[in-house]
Write the structure tokens for this entry.
Amino acid sequence: MTYARRSLRLYLANRSYVTLIPGGILVIMLAMSLVIGVAIGMATEFPLSAQIQEGMRENNGGAVYSIPGFLISLGALAVNRNFAMALAFGSTRRHFWLGTLMGFGLTSGATAASAVVLLALEKATNHWFFGVYAFDVAALGKGDYVLTFASVFVLAVLSLALGALFGTAYRAFGTKGALLTGLAAAVLVVAVTLLSASNKEIVGSWLGALGVWAAVVVAAIAAAISIAGSYAANRLARL
């Protein structure tokens, strides 16, 4: 684990980049939601009407949509920028991947914690004083702190793992390999979708049994597949 911790330190070389920026993106998303809320309020009334507030609570998925782009790029950068340096310092490929994966866990934890803090502030201010919903939303469990943390954490891990998957595929197989990996991922998604559609009753009962945790479980499975694929490609990556 010594070499894994060295790889973790490489990942954390710019701590603000890997731990603070994702939370900052959530703050920017909140600011955009507030601007939209103010614009709607100026056209209607303050505080926002119950109908508008309910619409925002059901449909505002900004907390889910805003962070994957940055985290996917961060995951790809992490497995490419530090790979050669880690091996030059005596790390094995396995230790490099374990250290990077621990870094992904820290980034995901910091991002999820930021979402929970912002949710607490949203509740404490009665939804930012005039009825704007950004984190107390359906996509994050309607104010459930545990579900909010789990949703954002798993989403962050999935995003980082996808970035790592494409990053390691590029290092191992080149541009064509990365493109084929993307194509294979798309085919897999389509195949699972078609299979689910042809077995709606079974899938529906399974998802129904999971209830509000269904999306978290599905994302966790996708993250596990991405992590496994990235680790396999990492074993073949070129220096």
